[in-house]
Amino acid sequence: MKPTPLTAITLLALAVAGVSQVQAAIVYSGPNQNVTYSQYNYNGAFSLFNDPANWDDVTLNTSVMLMPGFQESYEFSTMLEVHGNYVDFARNNSNARNLTAGSLIDAALSFSNNSYVDFSRYVQFLDPDFSFSSTDGEFYNSTGYAGLRFTKGLDIFYGWMQIQVTNSGNSDIQAVLIDWAYQDSPGIGIQAGAIAIPEPSTYGLILGGLALAGAAVRRRKRSSAA
After folding, report:
1. Rounded (5°) CA angle 55-59-63
2. For the residues of 96-117, what is the DSSP string, one character each?
3. Residue 76: band (very low, low, confident or very high) from pLDDT cuts 50, 70, 90
4. What are phi and psi of 189, to 5 degrees?
5. pLDDT-based confidence at residue 121 (cuts at 50, 70, 90)
6. Which of 125, 120, 98 is nearest to 172 (CA)?
7. Among 15, 128, 148, 203, which residue's beta carbon has the most beta carbons within 10 A?
């Protein structure tokens, strides 16, 4: 049986459909959001994608504790959410993971499950009989990507947030949420730093699909001529 004219169209539709499944849309905050946390700047529950008190809230806090002659501590960390759905952070034990650009964020990572995690923490005990200091947190005086997991009803989404922490070891500690994004297809991972621009491999898939469709059309024409 000779192929019908619909064969090439069907191949092209399947190729394009396959591309759409591979490259689902990424929702991006836009650059330089620069939400800032410091000793005197507490933002409370913060909605990442304009849906307050729902699935996209984060609650973060910069804490400065000064106990003269005994203890000083400076910390930037998550806080517990107060509603059913919340944003979890990829973690390494009790610390938020600092991921490099391009790292895959998906179900293979461990997440905070609405528990506290630290981005940066410095503690110094000043008592002469009990004097020491400790530094912790993968974002201590650094910039990187935190992995995010969103719970929306029964669906799980993955995203990232770019965070910069400075002055980690003193009362001028400051954290800035530079930008963030999430993959809008549930269960699909996202690369840290990825925004809503198709990668070159996606264009390759599209061109490959078009080439297959074109070849099918040429074969059909040759068969018809014979």
Report:
1. 170
2. E--BPTT-EESTTS-B-SS---
3. very high
4. -75, 170
5. very high
6. 120
7. 148
Distance CA 204, CA 211 (A): 10
Residue 41's alpha-carbon distances to 67, 211, 222, in angstroms, are 21, 56, 72
Q: At what angle do helices 200-225 and 6-22 cross, to 10 degrees?
A: 170
Phi, psi of 218 (to 5 degrees): -65, -40
Rounded to the nearest 10°, the torsion over CA 191, 192, 193, 195 is 40
- Predicted confidence (pLDDT) at residue 61 exceeds the cutoff of 60: yes
Q: CA–CA separation, 192 vs 169, rounded Å?
A: 27
Predicted model pTM: 0.75
One-letter amino acid at 196 equals A
Query: Bridge-partner residues for 61, per DSSP?
Result: 77
User: 122, 80 in Cβ contact below 8 A?
Assistant: no
Q: What CA–CA distance (Å, rounded) separates 2 from 24?
A: 36
Residue 130 DSSP code: S
CA distance linking residue 75 with residue 135, whole number of Å? 10
